[in-house]
Design brief:
There is one protein chain. This protein is an alpha/beta fold and about 450 residues long. It folds into two domains: about 65-330, Aspartate Aminotransferase, domain 2 (3-Layer(aba) Sandwich), CATH 3.40.640.10; about 330-439, Aspartate Aminotransferase, domain 1 (Alpha-Beta Complex), CATH 3.90.1150.10. Helix content is about 40%, strand content about 15%. The strands form three sheets. It has a seven-stranded mixed sheet, sandwiched between helices. Strands 11, 12, 13, 15 and 16 form a five-stranded antiparallel sheet that branches. Helix 7 (about 185-205) packs parallel to helix 8. The longest helix has 23 residues, at about 330-355. It starts with 7 loop residues before the first helix and ends in a 6-residue tail after the last helix. About 50% of the residues are buried. It binds pyridoxal-5'-phosphate (PLP). Pyridoxal-5'-phosphate binds next to helix 5.
């Protein structure tokens, strides 16, 4: 029982006393209190409102509190809250059917997990079982989740203190702005990155490599749009060496780039598609693996040694069905394309031209990153403390963004309106206008 009035102070206090946080030194936290949300906006108990251009962790593609998704979850809760994965269940079947309908031809089954990390975990498991090989090649500039194999496959710093599983090898993916290959243009970057990957495969022993795992567009690493020919080249390498190609679409998928899947921009397809986040915007946790025909057929007469109590949880499945239907009916993926590649991209480009602190701007759909530099010629990354200062100033003016290292990721929900784009861009402009890089 509580006699407290619920306000920012009470909720903040509860959190600080009892909640252990992700990726944090626990003693120095000051979490923002959120009381409620609607569409692209969130607010606290004092009525302070924010335009959410972070989509939380780049997952609320359909926005907050979509009425069709809420009622689907409520209806499912009233009829059947939970059921073991071995049973056939209507919501699970309908969700899988819809996901297969969005996937390219040649994909036949869906394995459901609780989130993105365990989806990567199981895609890796499938690739190892299917090929009888062990090694997983993945990119240094990547994030695949924080469980055993998913964190070992991750390229960024979060892998190093968590590196307990073997069989993971990393390579450099293309990133022209900070090229690892001394490339001068995108063609050179692409060609050299592919040559490097071929050499890694040869040196690791092609017959030992089960899978190449890539984020189609590395997200947390900085929205690193690969050159057009790169993913096609990786597809060819995988085919040449009998390696399974896994594309992690956890952040880039389900509308984020203005397509259902980001690889649709690249005229190619993987063997396994990993998804989570946008599939139901996180209203109920869910993720999974979309399995191509040959791998799916392999498991018709080979035992799959994997499973989860909540695989295909009815509440999560009902949320997927309603989310995908609403996205379809309301043209939400088309909206991400129109708003993201129209006014949002134009506005960010103008900001990058106007403000020298923006060293590079990249993006597609509602998936953009501004790379901040203290010296545009040397491309010196703006120190983290300065980025936090900017983030704080944006929040003071009512805008939430996703920041990583020296970057501001501008990643609004796929439902963002032209007026909201204009509002967000104006706040960004005003903060950059009054910002001076410290000498
Ligand atoms: N893969 C990618 C590309 C991600 O961005 C993330 C999370 O940010 C994950 C996997 C892990 O997903 P989860 O946190 O749902 O386990």
């Amino acid at each position: 029982s509580t006699t407290h009035s619920v306000d920012n102070h009470y909720v903040h206090g509860l959190d600080r006393q009892y909640v252990f946080h992700s990726w944090a030194q626990q003693g120095s936290l000051d979490p923002m209190v959120i009381a409620g949300a609607q569409g692209c906006r969130v607010w606290d108990y004092a009525g302070r409102e924010y335009l959410d251009f972070s989509s939380q962790l780049v997952n609320t593609n359909i926005g907050h509190q979509h009425p069709k998704v809420i009622s689907a979850i409520q209806a499912q809760a009233a009829s059947l809250c939970t059921i073991a994965p071995a049973h056939a269940n209507l919501a699970r079947g309908e969700a899988a059917k819809r996901i297969i309908a969005k996937a390219p031809t040649g994909f036949s089954k869906v394995f459901f997990t609780n989130a993105g990390a365990d989806a990567n975990e199981n895609a890796i498991r499938m690739a190892r079982l299917f090929t009888g090989r062990t090694k997983i090649l993945s990119a240094y500039r990547s994030y695949h989740g924080n469980t055993g194999s998913a964190i070992a496959a991750t390229g960024d710093w979060r892998r190093v203190p968590n590196e307990y599983s073997s069989g993971h090898v990393h390579f450099f993916n293309p990133y022209l702005y900070r090229s690892e290959f001394w490339a001068r243009d995108e063609d050179e970057e692409c060609e050299r990155a592919l040559t490097h990957l071929r050499r890694v495969i040869e040196c690791e022993g092609a017959k030992a490599v089960a899978a190449i795992l890539l984020e189609t567009i590395p997200g947390t690493a900085g929205v690193l749009l690969p050159p057009k020919a790169y993913l096609q080249g990786v597809r060819q390498l995988a085919d040449e060496f009998g390696i399974v190609l896994i594309l992690d679409e956890v952040m880039a998928g389900f509308g984020r780039t203005g397509r259902w899947f980001a690889f649709e921009h690249y005229d190619m397809a993987p063997d396994l598609i990993v998804f989570a986040k946008g599939v139901n915007s996180g209203y109920v946790p869910a993720g999974g693996v979309i399995i191509s025909e040959p791998i799916s057929r392999y498991f018709d007469d080979h035992f799959f040694v994997g499973g989860l109590t909540y695989s295909g949880h009815p509440l999560a499945m009902a949320a997927i069905v309603a989310t995908l239907d609403a996205m379809e009916e309301e043209g939400i993926v088309e909206n991400a394309d129109e708003m993201g590649n129209g006014p949002l991209a134009k506005g960010l480009q103008q900001l990058a031209e106007r403000h020298a602190v923006i060293g590079d701007w990249r993006g597609l759909g509602v998936f953009h990153a501004l790379e901040l530099v203290s010296d545009p010629v040397r491309k010196t990354p703006l120190p983290g403390a300065e980025v936090l200062k900017l983030k704080q100033q944006l929040m003071e003016q009512g805008l939430l963004v996703f920041t990583v290292e020296n970057r501001i990721h501008v990643v609004p929900p796929c439902i963002v309106t032209a007026a909201e784009v204009e509002e967000g861009l104006a706040i960004l402009n005003s903060v950059f206008e009054s910002y001076a890089v410290p000498a």
